[in-house]
């Protein structure tokens, strides 16, 4: 019977250790597991010294292995996900991507060269492609009005570093290319053209509309005011 009790306490020890890792108990379950292990060794020793030494070796060998296995499996359990806040992190992936103050996604600015609006010590503000947003320096502090290269987006902010001269030149070349690629819009208002049948050329004509065009002076009657007639008779 003592051997049976010793083995039963060994199994209880494993259960208490697993419960201590999976369930936060403030060390109570761990203390109970230690008491159970010592009791199991004592009971095994009363049965035989060899059994007591065997149980001691089993505890010394299997306990670290048990801890490693449980620690690897613990983050995948429901309690482990809650304690590590992994459920919240997974739900954050459904949130909209971070943007600048004018609504431009920060991902579109990665790899671009901008300018530091304020000193990055390491946090500050930068302006990239005309978009102003918060940024963090990945290395040494960056002075204001310095050229910066956008490395990545992390924590809802741009991570930037000091831009190299070749990167600045490449950005200037890209801006010039984009500027040259802009097409001049065609005027919406086109002049009236009359194609001459003899020469086959078109001439632009301009029609000027005057407010007096609608007035018919032939039917317009001008009344002579009596005052003006009286004044003329006196002058004569």
In short:
Helices cover 44% and strands 17% of the residues.
> Using DSSP, what is the number of strands?
7
**Helix fraction bin:** 40-55%
Q: Helix tally?
A: 7
- What's the overall average pLDDT, rounded? 74
Strand content: 15-25%
Oligomeric description of these chains: single chain
- Provide the gyration radius in Å: 45 Å
Q: Uncertain segments of ≥5 residues (pLDDT<50)? A: 88-92, 184-209, 222-236
How do the strands line up in the largest sheet?
1-2-3-5-4
Q: Any idea what the shape is?
A: rod-shaped
- Give the termini distance in whole angstroms: 158 Å
Largest sheet: 5 strands, mixed, barrel
Secondary-structure element string: HHHHHEEEEEHEEH
Given helix and strand content, the structural type is alpha+beta
Pfam family, one: NfeD
Domain NfeD-like C-terminal: 107-161
Subcellular location: Membrane
Protein name: Nodulation protein NfeD
